[in-house]
Amino acid sequence: MDLALIKTFLEVSETGSFVAASERLYVTPSAVSLRMQRLEELLGQSLFVRSKIGAEITPSGREFVVYAKSLLRTWEQARQHVAIPAGFKRSLTLGAQISLWPRLGWRFVDALREQLPDLGLRAELGMPETLTRAMTEGVMQISLTYQPTFHPGLRIEKVMEDELVLVAPWPDATIEQLAGRYVFVDWGPDFLQFHNLHLPTLTNPGLTLSMGSLSTLYAITRGLAAYLPARIVKSYLASGELHLVAGAQTFTRIAWSVWRDDLDEELATVARKALMAVADLAATETEVIVHQI
């Protein structure tokens, strides 16, 4: 069985659209259509009813979703097992959103390597929907995200509160100075509501970045103020490359961990303790910055 057919089927079933699935898979809609036609020929069943508004999954398609996920999970488990290098007894795939890697994800990896030296690790970067899909398919066992999605077989736990602070690359910055010198970093719908309330005149500054912590260097090099994670800007505040904007409100985001229920119990216990330790350290660093405001 061609795994590309299975992955494409799951994308179409999740999005309800050949076009949306093609965007996620970085292929053309016609390629998605051909793959689904091939899969239907192999199964001898119609999986979707095509229409102008999308693709509605058939009863046969709904039945196949369970088997499709199982096929991918079995393949990934086999791939990871075969890929375990000499000297390692087990493996784990960990994923996180980009803003959660600095000062949390990397430290989590370090702690796991120290406490479980026989564990082979694979670390991946992903958007919330990508991480959720990898978790449900069994190709990833732990993920860190700001936007978890509840699914059977997954457990969601709070990790820490992450503070966004308003910073500028010039000293003695005030909110009144930001017009024309500000970039809106999109941290999600809740942040947008907060932003509309506290900075209504800067809601649409003409430039929006949906790049998470990658926005930090852009803001610094272009001389622009922005809301950024306190954890990320700590070193820039210390070096004088960034400065807190006087009187600006902070915004709290919750970082979550997602765990597969079938993760080895011993491994899960060690990993949870390691994650709690690095999260406590990251939270302490954030508090130091927030107290300066």
Short key terms for the protein model shown above:
alpha/beta; 293 residues; 48% helix; 21% strand; two-stranded antiparallel sheet; 2 domains; Arc Repressor Mutant, subunit A; D-Maltodextrin-Binding Protein, domain 2; globular
Report on the architecture of this protein.
- The protein has helices at 3-15, 18-25, 29-43, 59-83, 101-115, 128-137, 189-198, 215-222, 230-239, 265-290, and strands at residues 48-51, 54-57, 90-96, 119-125, 142-145, 154-168, 184-185, 208-209, 226-229, 243-244, 251-260.
- The protein has 293 residues and is an alpha/beta fold.
- The protein has 10 helices and 11 strands.
- It is globular, with a radius of gyration of 22 Å.
- α1 packs across α3.
- It has 2 domains: 3-79, Arc Repressor Mutant, subunit A (Orthogonal Bundle); 89-293, D-Maltodextrin-Binding Protein, domain 2 (3-Layer(aba) Sandwich).
- Helices cover 48% and strands 21% of the residues.
Percent of residues in β-strands: 15-25%
Uncertain segments are none
Number of strands: 11
Order of helices and strands: HHHEEHEHEHEEEHEHEHEEH
CATH topology of the largest domain: D-Maltodextrin-Binding Protein, domain 2
**Count of the separate structural domains:** 2
CATH class descriptor of the largest domain: Alpha Beta
Q: Treating each run of at least 4 consecutive H or I residues as one helix, how many helices?
A: 10
Outline type: globular
Structural category: alpha/beta
For the residues shown, what is the average pLDDT? 89
- What is the annotated CATH architecture of the largest domain? 3-Layer(aba) Sandwich
**Biggest sheet details:** 7 strands, mixed
N-end to C-end Cα span: 58 Å
Q: What is the gyration radius calculated from CA atoms? A: 22 Å
Helical content band: 40-55%
